[in-house]
Amino acid sequence: MNVAIELTELTKTYGIRRGLDGLTLRVRAGEVFGYLGPNGAGKSTTIRLMLDLIRPTGGTVRVLGKDPRAEAVRLHRRIGYLAGDFAVDGRQRAGECLSFLAGLRGGVPAARITELAERLELDLAARIKSLSKGNRQKVGLIQAFMHQPELLILDEPTSGLDPLVQQTFLQMVAEAKAAGQTVFMSSHIMSEVEAIADRVAIIREGRLAAVDTVAALRDRSLLRVRIDFAETITVEEFAALPGITGLVVTGTGDGTTLTCRVDGAPDALIKAAARHTVTGLRAESQDLEELFHAYYAGENPTGS
Asked: Which of 42, 278, 279, 283 has the highest local Cβ count within 10 Å?
């Protein structure tokens, strides 16, 4: 298996403040990898260490098989990077800025820049200082994608973008993957990466909380169930069933409602409910956003 990014026991401290704590992570070549965590969790610190913009307190970093410190210049030519705080000279026009950056990378066809600008609806003639945050972000996206690098490292790439442009961005990521490029994308929004990522890592307070495919994370999510009964039921009848947590029974007399979470197959719950007259049934999977927040809060996301 080819590895695009390999982090081993990576640690970074800022005085008494911890940035990363023994992070070990491998990103495969050619995959789209989502790196999730709230602001301050260590996402940007990880990226800056990968690019040798800051130095680790401990551990090792390998990007595209190279040491970012020893081979920074060669390595940066093979990478497209969008910083979370992307900033350039506001006096330049967007097109002038992108042409200058293209020249630093050995040249990019003007048609490529124009094509990306049209897709993202960016006015290349506008001065950067006059652009909104969303339009400045488009400049950042274009400079990262335009030279079709082996590795794209994108820190909060959709910050400030409207929903339609976000969809265009996701299409661009899908095209990069189809071309064999690796995409490492940090975000604090689970829904932003779940549609496009092959795998997702969740970082919590500088430590890796989970890493898996989106499908596997979905499989770990709980089933939320609501059952309406025609008659009165008791908590005791259902509380001992396997996988049941958060059980609540409300209502008396004309009907009762049971709500709970189910970890695993709901077979036992359904069979127990079938001993009564069921007037309503609703079941839905836990939202991935909720699962993400459960990991961040340090809870067991499956409730077991």
From this structure: 42
Q: Could you tell me which residues come within 8 angstroms of residue 229 by beta carbon, excluding any fewer than 6 positions away?
A: 255, 256, 257, 258, 273, 276, 277, 278, 279
Q: Do 176 and 252 belong together in one domain?
A: no
Q: Which secondary structure element, helix H or strand E, spans residue 80, and what is its range?
A: strand 79-82
| DSSP characters over 260-278 | EEESS--HHHHHHHTTS-E
DSSP H/E element including 168: helix 163-178
18: in domain? yes
Question: Which domain does 279 fall in, by range?
Answer: 222-285
The answer to whether residues 101 and 133 belong to one domain is yes
pLDDT, one tens digit per residue, over 224-243 is: 899 999 999 999 999 999 98
Q: Are residues 11 and 159 in the same domain?
A: yes
CA distances (Å), 117 to each of 95, 106, 110, 154, 177, in order?
Answer: 9, 20, 11, 18, 20
CA distance 144 to 138: 10
Confidence grade of residue 104 (pLDDT, cut at 50, 70, 90): confident
10 falls within a domain? yes
